[in-house]
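Q: My labmate handed me this sequence with no annotations at all. I'd like to see what the chain might look like in three dimensions before we decide whether it's worth expressing. Could you predict it?
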Amino acid sequence: MALKVGRGAESPPFMVMDVIAAANARAASLPPGAPAVLRMEVGQPGLGAPEGAVEAAIAALRSGDALGYTEAFGIPSLRARIARHYRDHYGLDVPAARIAVAVGASGAFPLAFLAAFDPGDRIAMATPFYPPYANILTSLGMRPVLLECGPETRFQPSLAMLQALDPLPDGLVVASPCNPAGTMLPPEELAAIARWCHENGVRLISDEIYHGLSWGTVAESSAAAFSDSAVVVNSFSKYWSMTGWRIGWLLLPEDLVRPVECLAQNMFISAPHVAQVAAEAAMDCTEELEARKAAYARSRARLLEGLPRAGFDRIAAADGAFYLWCDVAHLTNDSAEFCARMLDGAGIAATPGMDFDRARGQHFLRFSYCGEESAVAEAPGRLCAWLSRG
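A: Here is what I predict for the chain of 390 residues:
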């Protein structure tokens, strides 16, 4: 008798992970002295945790003080430090009691979705979007409502789009800066959306994990400034360069604090203690982190100048994050096949757009530029040479 396989097993793959595997295999097969694979497929900073975070982790491990469970919402000093970050960075007075440290943003999203929504609820989001939003919601029995967005709205949802929905959704996920397009909602637009959601009983989930990585084209603001009912998700993986440490947080509205705490107690117990210690220290490593941000900015500028000369001249407004979302419809009708050929022919790993947009993704790809600066600088030249051979 065949055993039942649960609905969660039907979750589609996160294609960038397959690209990582292909790039690893390509790198392993290169002969000595061959040009290295340029890793532009994943949003992982090329440098690890800042030095102060590493030193704090080493000290905690040696002392034995960071090897056990913590409270489900994290160590009090880290929650207080995050609350201070909201005051210093946004001018917001946020009580530490509303901050829940989580096992990365990837662990925060299921907590938020389970606390805020029920199976069958409809949650809207712009396309293109970060794939786990929809995949997690679907695995939990919730229904993504995809809003097709383009350059005319900066690949972001608009208030008019939301007002036109019938019936209204139960929730809305926004990301500013967003992955993959790197675009941002201007503060006045985010404020209008946040207020509309609150007034219409639509729970807003604001993904702010790329905050700190914006390039001055649009002001950075938090949904927490405009709505007391919004859920904010953030992470130490991007600006703070701590992808492998699996540490993030939620800023919760009052009505979801206890529900999320109970879920966290049962699902995760707590985020890793040593990662929490390191994260708290990372928040005071501003000089080192700002130097890394400056390197990303230089890489961004080189690509925005060099990619059009290589034929990639349809790029979304790169307001923030460390991605370039490129329309390659004039080069291919199958971005997955194109990315495979690009890896083989140019030694450049990039992510095909189908990961982020199921309807139009075959005409798009995403370049990440948070890797080593000198490596990113090679990309336009390699692409020019490869496309000229084809």
